[in-house]
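User: Fold this; tokens only.

Assistant: Input:
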Amino acid sequence: MAVANERRQVAELGFVDRIRHLADAANPAFAAGSFLVPLAFLAASLALASTELLFYTHVAAGAVWFGFAIIFPAIIGPTLGGLDEEAAAAVNATLIPKAVFFLVGFSLTTVLSGTVLLTPDLGLGYGFAGTWSSMALGVGWGLFAFGLAVPHRLQLSAYYETLSPDPDGSRLESIEKKNLVVGLFEGAVMLGLVVLMTGFRL
């Protein structure tokens, strides 16, 4: 009954309170670190006016974002689908809050650092003004927005379902199938983005 009340209370929370709830579930230090650590490299790049450090930050954060975004639906999701309902619900309740903060922190760092790199007026960019760089930036920010709007919402739907005293296994399975489709789409777009980046680099 307490879990049911928690689920109902979370569903009734406003946006800021939901973020606080997720941060508490993820561990506040982990949630904060997921943003502060990658963004600290971006801040250091700007403070030192170091294009090399900025490029490293962009590539490293992008590798983490792209890798995790593919691994989650390709490996973690199917693995959870093979567990019994109680075990899957327990893992989801622990994993998803951490995954959301982690991915948002690294994806935000990726698109921000890429924007600085490809914006000559900011003084640290490579100065690639043109079709390739504009397309890459557009796709990067589009992926970031898509991540917030679709896969993260799906993951949070699974998380809130696990707060139920009797999680609906069929609903969780349906969410995992959608996550797989979304993950394949994201992976294809990410590979396309790599092609765009290769194009303007060469």
